[in-house]
Amino acid sequence: MLPKAEFVHWWFATGFLILGLLLLAESLVGEAAWRRRPWRVYLWPSFLFLMGLLMWPVMTFYTNSTIHMLAHGSWAQAMMLAGAAELGLARGKLHSPYWSLTTAGAFLVSAAAILLHEQNGWFYARAAFLHHILGWTFVIGAAFPLARAFRPSSVVVRTGFALVFVVTAVFLYSDRDSASIFGHMSPLAGAQHR
Questions:
Q1: DSSP letters of 158-184?
Q2: Beta carbons within 8 Å of 145's beta carbon, 6+ residues apart
Q3: What is the model's pTM?
Q4: Which one of 81, 91, 146, 175 has the largest count of C-beta atoms within 10 Å of its C-beta?
Q5: Greatest alpha-carbon span in the chain
Q6: Under 8 Å CB-to-CB from 88, ≥6 apart: which residues?
């Protein structure tokens, strides 16, 4: 028996929360203090890569349509590519700060995947609302990794980048069938989930 979709969302919410907290900690203490322990530099990029790997089983076992498989597959590839580029930057194998534009691209690919596979309007059902809010969060949030490529030491940019992941986690944790705001919003969506 497979878990409900909300449990998968909660698992990934935990991953996004961990990513956000790691980035927030790095932003608060500063890059110099964060790099005193060499292993800390690899934490968030390797975790992002791992989340991309874990998206493949979601694509395989938890989807019910071709468009969902394509969306989750492209999201998995984008997360793995961004994680790999950030790992290359952390390791020193990649030298140009413009490699962090890969993360901005991953945000936009993720936003497109989330928005394009949800074919209902915002207020159709809780799942439609969640997909729209997540997609537009990543569209707007792509400004932070974009700015990070040009101003890598900016505390505001680093903090905003971290908070995109924290906000994403909050939205994914809010995905509950019993929450009245995320119940069915349109009578055309079917029976209420309460």
A1: HHHHHHHHHHHHHHHHT--TT-GGGS-
A2: 100, 101, 103, 104, 107, 161
A3: 0.84
A4: 175
A5: 56
A6: 94, 99
